[in-house]
Specification:
Low-confidence stretches: none
Number of strands: 0
Mean pLDDT: 89
Radius of gyration: 26 Å
Oligomer: single chain
Number of helices: 2
Structural class: mainly alpha
Length: 70
Amino acid sequence: MAGQNNHNQVLLKKINDTLKPKDPLKPRVQDGIKKLQLQIKKLDSMLTNLQERDAKHIQRIVEATQKHDT
């Protein structure tokens, strides 16, 4: 029973920490926005690289098809 009570207290603390954060909200939101913007830049870069690779592969396929090279 004591283990269950301790578990409940830990759970209640986690819930309270989530519902009542100690840090101000605005800096946390701004930090989140910066992290999202960085992630978007990384994904955009990956997308560009994949599109360039696709274009190269398509060009190779077109050239091989024109030369009847299977």
